[in-house]
Amino acid sequence: KSRTDIDFVWCNELTELREADYEEILRRMRGGQSAYQQIISDFNPIDKFSWVHDRFFIRDVGKVHKINYTVLDNHPAFLALPKTQAYIARLDSLAESNPNAYAVYRLGEWGTLEGVIFDKWDVAPLPEGESFVTWYGGDFGFTVDPAAVVRIHLRGKDIWLEELIYETGLTNQALA
After folding, report:
1. DSSP annotation of 122
2. Whole-prediction pTM value?
3. What phi and psi values does residue 128 have, to the nearest 5 degrees?
């Protein structure tokens, strides 16, 4: 069998991959002996502004089958173990001290990225045919931190941010 005969891939912690990485995995699935090809992915829903949420839950690209599991969906024998009960109690204690972590890790709900400057976002398209003041903003990065460029639209007190570039490995020439 050649190295390109891939039928099945499991992406653990999908939110840790870039969407470009996921696209590359899709391109590598050229098929081997199986009658069908399949990618299974798992992740904690840590940020509703991630590419995973946008691609699979908003745009529903590929019409994928989505399953929500929490710790309580484990086998009853596992749930009865003292260490599992302690883990569940620890998760339950987050309800008061860290509601976002509780929502993500205990309830399996989409959370919001913590430590961000703006945490009260509404996702809405830019109204067409209206007058805006527009600026551009950028942040240089290369290897670990990506380079970023945003277009900022202002109308009254309403601000729209449009991500134009967010990727690693861009030289200054490529970024320009």
Report:
1. -
2. 0.63
3. -85, 150
Q: Which residue from 118, 109, 119, 94 is spatially nearest to 46, judged by alpha carbons?
A: 109
Q: Which residue spans within 109-171 are E strands per DSSP?
A: 133-139, 147-155, 158-167
Hey, what are 83's tokens?
């260490």
Look up residue 71 and give its DSSP letter. G
- What is the rounded CA–CA span in Å between residue 49 and residue 67? 19
Higher-confidence position of 25 and 31: 25
Q: Are 15 and 52 in contact (CB under 8 A)?
A: yes
pLDDT digits over 94-143, tens only? 999 999 999 999 999 998 866 665 656 666 777 787 788 889 999 888 87
The residues that bridge with 137 in the sheet, in sequence order, are 150
The Cα 28–Cα 115 span in angstroms is 36
Cβ atoms of 102 and 46 closer than 8 Å: no
129 dihedral zone (left: phi>0; alpha: psi -120 to 50; beta) = left
**The tokens of 81 are what?**
């173990």
Q: Which residues contact 20 (CB under 8 A, 6 or more apart)?
A: 167
Q: How far apart are CA 18 and CA 162, in angstroms?
A: 18
